[in-house]
Specification:
This protein is of the alpha/beta class. 48% of the residues lie in helices and 6% in strands.
């Protein structure tokens, strides 16, 4: 049997993984993960912890099968050629990724080595370029993409094949010194627990998914990002076709759509997908940007979201939309700055998903929110966190305010605030901007470039 290398990337699982199954059938496997300096340096602490915890779990799973995960410091273009010659590797197996970094790295590596890389697309429901309109193009509107995506037959779940491992004298394990403190259960086992838990309450997804103070969503985004579970496995487990569960599946279609879009148009990382918005005159006030990052804008729902992100690496989808809209439209800060910040700090921080969503909120993307849609942070807060549960969890200094006061403390008198020990500008910030004025400023900036 030849020696084959299995190169784990964003697919840290052994089940429902087509590339892993193929590698196990092809030879004695050498499983490896390479910490790429470029990716590691772009990731915040919470995502790194989650990554290394997932790697530890994968290592344990492989150990139970008689193998091990070899963990090496990159860049891959340097490490892999050395391993190939040391171990006499005949073939490499991977799951591809849509990011421009991944595409470029794989192309560079292929030019350096003289063995094949067998590529699969195990982290998406359907490979990029396979969900096309009748004209044979990728739809730039989500609904037609979704309709087509939903009709396509599902791939077979790859069967588990018991692996044979090559014998190596030592384990390569160059793990950085990171202490685990993360709340999420890691690895495939953690992902399966989260999926089971979600399935037991998925009938209420539609009703609860927009409320950050409720446990309405699956919390599977970081698992999908690291590939501790694949979308095919998730969809296979969501058996019912109730409206609520279909809505959940529709979210997975958004994930595929943004991935397909990035693969087809990698320039959207740097440029507005709708080029007319390239000319917007952003204010880019760095002090405003800093206050937003630190959860000190004076808008409780925005501050709660930004503090949750910083403390846990997660933020609820509704609050991501509110905080992103606040940065772009209320503070007139370029969406690219916010995108970069989110991507670093989110545990599910993923270039395709993050860029797609930021451009959606900015109104600059494909099939994005209309430019004149400016989220009103107070109305959003009242609607989606009516009892202020989410705000109280993250902005405790105003936690004793009543439900109807907590969304906009500046509307209260100084004396009423003092009863709660609150002095605006001292114990909690005054609002950074007046939303109505900020909205007008933003609409003017957008209209100006639309008229050009
Ligand atoms: C400004 C902004 C930035 C975002 N950045 C990211 C990111 O970097 N990585 C990321 O995975 N998601 C991102 N999202 C999408 C979404 O917020 C998260 O996927 C979701 O909050 C994860 O929670 P969940 O797993 O409980 O979601 P659920 O509601 O349970 O959804 C199930 C899955 O569907 C997918 N999904 C849900 N909503 C979206 C969406 N709007 N776009 C694409 N896929 C979606 C995710 O994979 C998610 O895990 C972003 C959204 C916004 C508005």
């Amino acid at each position: 049997m030849p020696t084959v290398m299995y190169w784990f990337r964003k697919d840290l699982r052994l089940t429902g993984n087509p590339a892993w199954s193929a590698a196990c059938k092809a030879g004695h496997v050498f499983p490896v993960f390479i910490s790429e300096p470029e990716l590691i340096s772009a990731a915040g602490k919470e995502r790194l912890i989650q990554l290394y915890e997932n790697l530890e779990s994968l290592h344990q799973e492989l150990a139970q099968l008689g193998g091990a995960l070899h963990l090496l410091q990159g860049p891959a273009e340097k490490v892999i050629p050395r391993l190939i010659s040391e171990l006499d590797v005949a073939k490499i197996f991977v799951n591809s990724d849509v990011s421009p970094f991944s595409t470029k790295r794989d192309t560079t590596l292929e030019q350096k080595i003289n063995i094949p890389i067998q590529k699969h697309w195990g982290n998406l429901m359907h490979p990029p370029g396979s969900v096309l309109t009748q004209k044979g193009t990728l739809s730039k509107a989500f609904t037609p993409f979704y309709k087509k995506w939903n009709q396509m037959p599902l791939a077979e779940m790859p069967a588990f094949t018991s692996p044979e491992f090559i014998r190596v004298e030592k384990l390569f394990w160059e793990k950085p010194n990171i202490t685990s403190s993360h709340g999420l259960n890691s690895g495939s086992a953690g992902a399966k627990t989260r999926l089971d838990d979600f399935l037991s309450r998925s009938e209420r997804y539609e009703e609860l998914r927009n409320f950050p103070g409720k446990s309405g969503t699956s919390m599977l985004s970081s698992d999908l990002h690291f590939g501790t579970i694949g979308p095919l496995e998730i969809i296979n487990r969501v058996k019912s076709d109730s409206h609520s569960q279909q809505m959940f599946i529709r979210q997975l279609a958004w994930r595929d759509w943004y991935a397909h879009l990035l693969f087809a148009t990698p320039e959207i990382i740097f440029k507005s997908a709708n080029p007319i918005y390239e000319k917007i005159q952003w204010e880019n006030n760095l002090l405003d940007f800093d206050l937003w990052k630190n959860g000190k804008t004076g808008y409780p729902i925005v501050d709660a979201g930004m503090r949750e992100l910083r403390a846990t690496g997660f933020m609820h989808n509704r609050v991501r939309m509110i905080t992103a809209s606040f940065l772009i439209k209320d503070l007139l800060v370029d969406w690219r700055l916010g995108e970069k910040y989110f991507r670093r700090h989110l545990i599910d921080g993923d270039i395709a998903q993050n860029v797609g969503n930021w451009q959606w909120v900015a109104g600059t993307g494909f099939d994005a929110a209309p430019y004149f849609r400016v989220f009103n942070p107070v109305l959003q807060s009242k609607k989606f966190d009516p009892a202020g549960e989410y705000i109280r969890a993250w902005v405790p200094e105003i936690g004793s305010l009543q439900n109807d006061q907590i969304h906009s403390p500046w509307t209260m008198t100084k004396n009423d605030l003092l009863i709660h020990g609150i002095t605006l500008g001292t114990t909690y910030p005054l609002p950074l901007v007046d939303h109505a004025e900020a909205r007008d400023r933003s609409l003017k900036a957008y209209k100006k470039v639309r008229e050009i």
